[in-house]
Every structure is written in C-alpha cells, then in structure tokens.
C-alpha cells in the first residue's frame, strides 16, 4: 500500500474555526479522490498554536515545534492550506508563517489553497493574494481554489468545488507517488 504524506496548515483563530472545518472537508475529499490502495497520513497544524513560536523565530530563536513543522513541509507529498480572509486578503498570521518558509521547502509540491470569509466579495483573494504567494514559493498549486462563507460550507455548489479541488490535488499527488 502506498502512503501519501499531506501536511495541512490552517490559519483560523481557533481549532474549530471555519478554516479548520473547511480543511477537514478538503482532507476527506482528497481521501475519497485517491486511487484504491493509497492511504494518507495527515499532519494538521493550526497556526494559532504557533503564534509565540513564530514571534520567537522572528527574533532569531528557532523553536523546535516550528522547525519540525518546516521539516514536515519539506517532506510532504502535498499541502492543503486554508486562511480566513480579513480586509480583502489572507490573515497576518498566515502571511507571516509563509514568509518564514523558504521557497525550496515547497518548490514543486502540489498545493491546494482555500479560504473562508464573511462574504463572497472577497472570493477573488484566492487569485490576487494567495496564488501569487504560492507561485513565488514555487508550489504546484491546483487550478481550483475553494472559498466559503458562513452557511455555504455544506451547499451543493461548495461541495462540488471542494470535490473538484480535492480531485486535482489527488491527481497531482498520485503522479508523484512511486508506481509498483
């Protein structure tokens, strides 16, 4: 059995934030989209738990927990990342974290980006804020991003988009797996 190592990074304010809930749906959809005989090992990280570590890292101290997360990103077969949208862009914590990641750490890695926000007016943040960030870092971003608002996470249109994005990540990831 082949195991796919996927790292999930969410930047919601709490472990049960809208961003974390969207990440869980994306994880399940990726699992459903993978070929038979492929298992997944997920490592989920909520950036709210790393705020002090990120601040320490900025001051020159490299906390072990953050260093371990960077190592997991380098070893990942694929990445799922979700941010809340504030004032028409990703959260400051999300940006600060990804600013600490070296481009070679995720270069060429399949990456599914998603976001949550208060209204549909901010859905283009995926294309004008997140996509350029991950392009700079060299990630192999999925063409389909996912954006949700309160109350739309379980709507048919959102679930279809989640399945499409998850299918793209599964396809990109499966290409990188060794074939028997």
Automatic annotation (TrEMBL):
<dbReference type="InterPro" id="IPR029039">
    <property type="entry name" value="Flavoprotein-like_sf"/>
</dbReference>
<keyword id="KW-0285">Flavoprotein</keyword>
<keyword id="KW-0560">Oxidoreductase</keyword>
<protein>
    <submittedName>
        <fullName>NAD(P)H-dependent oxidoreductase</fullName>
    </submittedName>
</protein>
<feature type="domain" description="NADPH-dependent FMN reductase-like">
    <location>
        <begin position="5"/>
        <end position="147"/>
    </location>
</feature>
<dbReference type="InterPro" id="IPR051814">
    <property type="entry name" value="NAD(P)H-dep_FMN_reductase"/>
</dbReference>
<dbReference type="Pfam" id="PF03358">
    <property type="entry name" value="FMN_red"/>
</dbReference>
<dbReference type="InterPro" id="IPR005025">
    <property type="entry name" value="FMN_Rdtase-like_dom"/>
</dbReference>
<keyword id="KW-0288">FMN</keyword>
